């Protein structure tokens, strides 16, 4: 995670933010944020703040069925608003995935995926709190996007603000007909703070994102699937079935190929053409040298696997 130590911008933090942020601090305590003093500070005895309460563990649920993990935002009464506690539980769920899991599904309980940031956390936050808040989101969303397993998003109802920022870090997105996409930050007097200004323009373009933030434009599921918000559009109630279908296909891929798609492909796409082609050739050589690739190629040549056909 990027280090803020060189900025000396944060003399103090709101106690509530400190408690939430410690869960993300790899040193387990408050840190000096002055240049050259990036070490753990002496701490008085403190309670185990990183241990979630039973209520906190229910904010995001984790279910594992063979190679598929299903992670569900579980605040339907708040339209699955993303508080720091929810973000921390999301991080913990991905950290807890056993090696047997090869794909994950992220969904929202109730009629909405997520209505975005829990605005109640901003009511008494100062500038320092806001910086730490964003960096907490950055760390978790980056670990999802560049993690070990491909992640499928099941989108219904509100996919708004921070909810859309979360969706944008997922690899495959399925929208039900009820889904709608919006960035109301302009109307709230705030700005995207969960990585949306980096990820969303790559999906939908800068001009479309600007329009959404300036005018409050809301896109329907049909429009969203055409413009890049989602890759699949399904009827009401069919998103999880589709997600499990796609999860089965992803889990059956060669692990090294899935790794290359998640880790190498984004870097190649952002590189200049010459660098990208070199990186591609190296990754292709590594992948095809793997024993699993050799086994699959031999099975295809021996007519033991089906050829690609339109569906």
SSE order and pairing:
Blueprint: H1 15-21, H2 54-57, E1 60-65, E2 68-73, H3 84-95, E3 103-108, H4 127-145, E4 151-155, E5 158-160, H5 162-168, E6 172-176, E7 180-182, H6 185-188, H7 196-204, H8 206-215, E8 219-220, H9 221-227, E9 232-234, H10 239-251, H11 255-270, H12 273-289, H13 291-301
Parallel strand pairs: 2-3, 3-4, 4-6, 5-7, 6-9
Antiparallel strand pairs: 1-2, 7-8
Helix pairs in contact: 3-4, 5-7, 7-8, 11-12
Polypeptide structure, described:
The chain is α/β, with parallel strands linked by helices and 311 residues long. 44% of the residues lie in helices and 13% in strands. It contains 13 helices and 9 strands. The chain has helices at residues 15-21, 54-57, 84-95, 127-145, 162-168, 185-188, 196-204, 206-215, 221-227, 239-251, 255-270, 273-289, 291-301; strands at 60-65, 68-73, 103-108, 151-155, 158-160, 172-176, 180-182, 219-220, 232-234. A 6-stranded mixed β-sheet has the order 1-2-3-4-6-9, sandwiched between helices. A 3-stranded mixed β-sheet has the order 5-7-8. Strand 1 (60-65) and strand 2 form a beta hairpin. Helix 11 packs antiparallel against helix 12 (273-289). The chain starts with 14 loop residues before the first helix and ends in a 10-residue tail after the last helix. Residues 1-51 have low confidence and may be disordered.
